[in-house]
Structure formats: structure tokens, C-alpha cells
Design a protein that fits this description.
The structure is a single chain. The chain is of the alpha/beta class. Helix 6 packs antiparallel against helix 7.
């Protein structure tokens, strides 16, 4: 019998009849929600977790066979929902978790009430003149090669680009430490799964109301991607944030909380 709570290092906080699941992005763990999750704890039950291979999850549960595509990560989410008998959850996913949550909602729409996607992308690679994802294949291959040859160098290169908060060097260092804390082999496999994925075909199958939170200057996900998602996702709302970078929940927590709260229609201070 698999202990899902231990495998995914599930933590719970807060109170309320409605549940929010916070799902972290690539190279991170649940600690990245520390700047916004407490704001929702008075009105919601909060569930946070680490994907297998990240944070304090059970690394022994990792296998390339299971996690060599999105299916393993989707199953992690569905396992958590089933283990804790969750219904009508609000799923807040950062980056790659946006698509993981969407795929889980396609499989179990009854379990989801709303999806909130922070910096989402269905496809990071450019595809001719029809789709601009922000990266050419050569860019991704260089990134993967760098992870393999110089993991620390990769982390120190990507962190400032992704955070895009030159006035807050401590946040960039925090992200770099998060990147470097992971297992290099697992991190590279997760990166390959993430950056070479293409989930554009699944967008039409998604039915859950969705908030797309797109940063104004994101080196990982350009504005064109947020606009593409908005055009192809039913029941979607596009929120163009003033925040820059790929981690607004870290660099601009107040704006992130405000935009989520406005979408949910909840007075967090009441």
C-alpha cells in the first residue's frame, strides 16, 4: 500500500469548506508557496505537496518509466485527490503544473472546481509560423546539455533569467538554491519532460473554468503563449500581470494574491 502523504510530502493547513491544492513548478518544491499560501488559510483548506523527485518527496518512489512523461505527475495529483477524498478543488499550478492540473481535470472533472495557472505553457517550443512558444529546439538542447555537464552552472545561469528581479537578489539566490538542491539526473529528466512536451491538442478537452496568469515580461513563457491559451481554453480568463519574471508568487506575492482573490471572489480579510 502506497503512503501518498509520505511519498509526496503532503502538508495541510488552513480551515474552510473549500480546498486549494498548490502545485509547484519544475526545479522547485512546495516551499515556493510560502509567500502566498498563508493568505488563503483563513478561508480555505490548503494542501501542498512535492512531486516525486522534488523537495522532501520519497526519492525511492521515482522511476524514469513512470515519470518519463506527464502521466506520472498527473497520477500524483489524482492520488492526492483520492487519498484525501477531495471534491471541487481549486487547483493552483505554477508553470508545468498548470498543464499537469489541466490533464488531471480532464480525467476527473468532477474533482475540480477551478484551475488557476501561473505562467502556463502548453508548448515551450516554437512550431513554424503557427505557434510561438519562446524556444527553438537548439535552445532546449543547450539547456539540457548544460544541466548534464555543469549542474551548478545551469542553476546560476537560469535563476536570474527566470526570476527577473534584479532589485531582489535574495529571491534569485533562493531560486538558485532550489534548483541546485535537486537530484541532477531527476531534474534533467523533469526538464526534458517539461520543455519538450506538447499539450496543445488536449486544450479542447478541458472544461473547468480557468484563470491564466501571464506575467508582462517572462523569459520562459512569452505573452503570446498566454494569449494562445486564452483562445483555445474554454471558460478561460486571461490576467496580464504587471509582475515580471516567471515566479510572480515569489517576486510579486501581493499582486498574485490580489488577482487570485479577485478571480475567486473571496474577501480574504473579511
Amino acid at each position: 500500500m502506497i503512503d501518498v502523504a509520505e511519498r509526496n510530502n503532503v502538508t495541510m493547513m488552513g480551515e474552510g469548506d473549500r480546498t486549494i491544492i498548490f502545485a509547484h513548478g519544475f526545479g522547485c518544491d512546495q516551499s515556493m508557496w510560502q509567500y502566498i499560501a498563508p493568505a488563503f488559510a483563513k478561508k480555505f483548506r490548503i494542501i501542498m505537496f512535492d512531486y516525486v523527485g522534488s523537495g522532501h518527496s520519497d526519492l525511492n518512489a521515482y522511476s524514469s518509466g513512470k515519470y518519463g512523461n506527464f502521466r506520472g505527475y498527473v497520477q500524483d495529483v489524482l492520488d492526492i485527490i483520492e487519498t484525501f477524498n477531495l471534491e471541487k478543488v481549486i487547483f493552483i499550478g505554477h508553470s508545468v503544473s498548470s498543464m499537469i492540473g489541466m490533464l488531471a481535470s480532464i480525467e476527473r472533472p468532477d474533482a475540480f472546481d477551478k484551475l488557476i495557472m501561473i505562467g502556463p505553457s502548453p508548448r515551450y517550443l516554437n512550431d513554424g509560423t503557427d505557434y510561438y512558444g519562446g524556444f527553438d529546439l537548439s535552445d532546449i538542447n543547450e539547456l539540457l546539455d548544460m544541466m548534464e555537464m555543469n549542474f551548478a552552472g545551469w542553476a546560476s545561469f537560469l535563476a536570474p533569467l527566470a526570476m527577473n528581479a534584479p532589485d531582489s537578489p535574495a529571491l534569485t539566490k533562493e531560486l538558485e538554491r532550489s534548483f541546485i538542491s535537486g537530484d541532477p539526473v531527476i531534474a534533467r529528466e523533469f526538464a526534458e519532460v517539461t520543455f519538450l512536451s506538447d499539450h496543445r491538442q488536449e486544450l479542447s478537452k478541458a472544461t473547468i473554468p480557468t484563470l491564466i496568469m501571464q506575467c508582462s515580461d517572462d523569459s520562459i513563457v512569452p505573452i503570446e503563449v498566454g494569449e494562445y491559451l486564452h483562445r483555445h481554453l474554454k471558460n478561460s480568463t486571461l490576467c496580464l500581470m504587471e509582475a515580471k519574471g516567471h515566479y510572480p508568487h515569489i517576486s510579486h506575492p501581493e499582486e498574485t494574491i490580489r488577482d487570485i482573490n479577485q478571480y475567486l471572489g473571496v474577501n480574504l480579510n473579511g
